[in-house]
Design goal:
about 325 residues; mainly alpha; elongated
Length: about 325
C-alpha cells in the first residue's frame, strides 16, 4: 500500500505541475487570442461599432478564460479542467470545443505511438538478447551495425528522409494523410494502416536501435555472471539459459527505462505527425502554436501530459509483478 500511495502521489504531482506550466507558458507568447479573433472578424469586411467590438471582446475573453487577474484565471482553469475537462472553444476552429477536437485526434496519436513503441521495444529487446548471447555470430555484428546507424538519428530527420524517398523519389506512400472509407470497414482499416506505415517506421527505426544496444549490453554483462556460468556447467542448453536466466534479469531494467522514455517517444511522435500531416494531437499543437490558440494548446498538451504520466504509472506498477525482489522490499 505504501508503494502504491507513493506512486499515485508522484503521479498526481506530475500532472498538477505539468498542467500549471502549460497554463502559464502560452500567456508568455506575444499573441492575444481575443485580439487575433477580432482582427480575423474585422478583416473579413464586417462593420462593427466600437460598442459592439467592446462587447464582443468581453464575450470572447470570457469564453477563452482571460477575464480577471492571472490568479483568478488559473483558479478557474483548474476548476474547469479538473471537474469538467472543459478547455473552452478553439480559436483556430471557433466555435468547436477543444474537447471535441482532442477526442477526434487522440486515438490517432495513441494508435501510432503505442503500436510503434511496442514493435520497437519487442523487436529491439529480442534482437539485443540474441546478439548479446551470441556476440561472435556474423548476423549479430550486422544487426549491431544497423542499430548504431539508426540510433543517433533524430525522429524528424529520419521522417523527412523517409518522406523524400518514398513520397517523391519513389511514390509508394502519399505525402499527406488522407483516410478513406467510413466506420470500421475493411477499406477504412486498410487506409489507416497504409497511411500509418511511414510515420510508424520513422519512430520504430530510431527507437529500436536503443533497445537493441541496451539489451545487448545487459545480456553480455550477465553472460559472465557466476549463476550463468554455473548453469552452463550443469549442461543446460543455451536456449534454456537465455530464457530462464538471462531474460528475467534483463527485462526489468528495460521495462523501467520504457517508463522514462515514453515522454521522449511522445514528443518524437508529435514531430512525426507534423512532418507527415498526420491527424493527431501533434498537428493540433502545431496549429495552436501558429495561431496563438491558448485553449487548443493548453488542452492538447494537458491531455498529452496526463496520457504520458498514466502510461508511466502503469509501467511503474507492473515492476513488482515481474520482479519478486521488489515485492519483497
Amino acid at each position: 500500500m505504501k508503494f502504491l500511495i507513493s506512486r499515485l502521489t508522484s503521479y498526481l504531482a506530475v500532472i498538477l505541475f505539468g498542467i500549471t506550466a502549460i497554463f502559464f507558458i502560452p500567456r508568455l507568447l506575444p499573441v492575444n487570442p481575443v485580439e487575433a479573433m477580432l482582427g480575423r472578424i474585422l478583416s473579413q469586411g464586417a462593420y462593427m461599432q466600437q460598442e459592439q467590438v467592446s462587447a464582443l471582446r468581453e464575450v470572447l475573453s470570457d469564453a477563452f478564460g482571460l477575464n480577471g487577474s492571472l490568479a483568478s484565471q488559473y483558479a478557474g482553469f483548474l476548476r474547469r479542467v479538473l471537474l469538467t475537462q472543459d478547455f473552452g472553444p478553439s480559436l483556430a476552429m471557433y466555435p468547436t470545443p477543444v474537447k471535441e477536437l482532442i477526442a477526434q485526434a487522440l486515438p490517432w496519436t495513441f494508435g501510432l505511438l503505442l503500436s510503434s513503441v511496442l514493435i520497437a521495444w519487442v523487436v529491439g529487446n529480442a534482437l539485443g538478447l540474441i546478439t548479446g548471447a551470441l556476440p561472435t555470430r556474423k548476423l549479430s555484428r550486422v544487426l549491431e551495425g544497423v542499430a548504431l546507424v539508426f540510433y543517433p538519428i533524430p525522429y524528424f530527420v529520419l521522417a523527412l528522409v523517409l518522406s523524400i524517398l518514398f513520397s517523391f523519389v519513389w511514390t509508394v506512400f502519399p505525402l499527406t494523410t488522407t483516410i478513406r472509407g467510413a466506420g470500421w470497414s475493411w477499406g477504412f482499416i486498410g487506409s489507416v494502416i497504409y497511411h500509418s506505415l511511414l510515420p510508424a517506421a520513422s519512430i520504430v527505426a530510431v527507437t529500436f536501435g536503443w533497445w537493441m544496444l541496451s539489451m545487448r549490453a545487459l545480456t553480455e554483462t550477465l553472460m559472465d555472471e557466476e549463476f550463468v556460468i554455473y548453469a552452463r556447467l550443469k549442461g543446460l542448453s543455451n536456449r534454456r539459459i537465455i530464457l530462464r536466466y538471462i531474460l528475467p534479469n534483463t527485462l526489468l531494467p528495460q521495462i523501467t527505462f520504457l517508463a522514462l522514455q515514453l515522454g521522449l517517444m511522445f514528443s518524437g511522435a508529435i514531430v512525426t505527425e507534423i512532418v507527415f500531416n498526420y491527424p493527431g494531437v501533434g498537428s493540433l499543437i502545431h496549429t495552436a502554436v501558429l495561431q496563438g490558440d491558448y485553449s487548443l494548446l493548453t488542452g492538447a498538451v494537458s491531455l498529452s501530459i496526463v496520457a504520458v504520466a498514466t502510461l508511466t504509472l502503469l509501467v511503474d506498477l507492473s515492476c513488482p509483478l515481474i520482479d519478486p525482489r521488489i515485492r519483497q522490499r
